[in-house]
Amino acid sequence: MLTTMKPAVAAFTDTYLPTVNGVTYTIRSWRDRWRDDGGRMDVVYPRSSHTPVDGEHPVRSIPFPFYDGYRLGAPRVPDAVTDVDLVHAHTAFALGLAGLRLARRIDVPLLASYHTPTGEYTSYFTDSDRLAGALSRVTESYERWYFDHADLVVAPSEPARDHLVDDLGVTTPVRIVSNGVDTDRFRPVDDAAFRERYDLDGTLIGYTGRHGYEKRLEDLIDAATDLDATVVFGGDGPARDALEARADSIDADVEFLGFLDREEMPAFYSALDVFAFPSPVETQGLVALEAYACGTPVVGADSGALSQTIDDGVTGYHFETGNVEDFGANLRRALGERDRLSGNCLDRRERISVERSVSDLEGVYEELTPVAAV
Predict the structure, then answer these.
(1) Which of 103, 226, 237, 266 has a 20 to 30 A CA-CA distance from 374?
(2) Burial class of residue 53, CB neighbours in 10 A (0-12, 13-18, 19+)
(3) Which residues contact 361 (CB under 8 A, 6 or more apart)?
(4) Which residue has the higher pLDDT, 123 or 284?
(5) CA 192/CA 6 separation, integer angstroms
């Protein structure tokens, strides 16, 4: 009987557990599925409070001075990951450089994932718009250099791919591989206990994820002021104090739940009548897919990947970025059509599953590292 050996993969990332974000969960989900199917995928990440398990390799790190909770890892290669068939870099920066160095040293392909529009985050480094603009240009120039040293690039959506090719000028071929959602975990569940635990009732509109200034979460507070609904924020981040101040200043009905355990997330999404996503800078918007898997429609910015992730009028509605009146009108519209939109979201579950994504990823791996049948 002929069997095909899966390529052994070393994944390099600048963000990993216990940090809570889409990149972390995508890497962990892909790694778990790859290993469950008999493959090897090691992860190299900045040392943190996370206790590594087999196949996880922390390297020395220091706190990142501009963003609480993130760490800078030393761009080094652990000896344990030098016998792989492929390097998969989930970052272009510190540990991405280590991955590039390893790929060149042992002569294996380098696959680079594009997760984050880094140029959009330079405002965290300076209060000067002029300096932030200059930093953004430098960052994008560097990313172009890095991606053009990869053998292949994967992006989670067509808009993300188009940004790489059309805006950054990346010449390396780019394939689309969705991040995917764990549909075994994310599914409609009874939300009564969750609502009772956090003292929530009535109509709920919510968001969960990092509270970053670039995500324009204040627009959600403003858009919902005329709706008979409570706005619920899960997660945390640098913009939280400003969001709380904004809610207080207009006496809005807003609840901040802070970080939620991963086990609580299906109930959070199921409790919401509509998931609201005003961020214009997403490369896919993984939380929108998680909401779909729980049957919750999404109203989000018609910008970045959300212009494609949201099927307007089918799984939710778009609004013009920054147009609070349009945002509020489409929240109201989605609330009125909740049952129809919810059914459409549930119909997408198989299409957005992480199993399908890992199957697509395996095709990319095999394209780069054809392995003979044995």
Answers:
(1) 103
(2) exposed
(3) 30, 34, 154, 177
(4) 284
(5) 44
Fill in the amino acid letter for 59. V
What are the tens digits of pLDDT across the range 307-347? 999 999 999 999 999 999 999 999 999 999 999 999 999 99
Q: Which amino acid is at 253?
A: D
Of the candidates 17, 36, 39, the residue with the CA atom closest to the CA atom of residue 27: 17
Q: Are 301 and 309 in contact, with CB atoms under 8 Å apart?
A: no
Cα separation, 339 vs 138, in Å, equals 47
Whole-number pLDDT of residue 208:
96
Reply yes or no on whether the pLDDT at 44 is more than 60.
Answer: yes
Which runs of E-coded beta strand occur in 47-180? 56-59, 61-63, 71-73, 86-89, 110-113, 152-155, 174-176
**Domain-wise residue ranges, the chain:** 9-180+353-368, 192-346
Residues in the chain: 374
Give CATH for domain 192-346: 3.40.50.2000
As assigned by CATH, the class of the 9-180+353-368 domain is alpha beta
Please indicate whether the domains covering 9-180+353-368 and 192-346 agree at the CATH topology level: yes
Return the structure tokens found at 344: 């459409």
**Cis check: omega of the bond before 18, within 30 degrees of 0:** yes
On the CB side of 369, CA atoms within 13 Å amount to 20
The helix/strand/coil state of 7 is coil
Please state the pTM of the whole predicted model.
0.90
pLDDT, the chain, mean = 92
Helix (H, G, I), strand (E, B) or coil at 304: coil
Please state the φ and ψ torsions of residue 110, each to the nearest 5 degrees: -110, 120
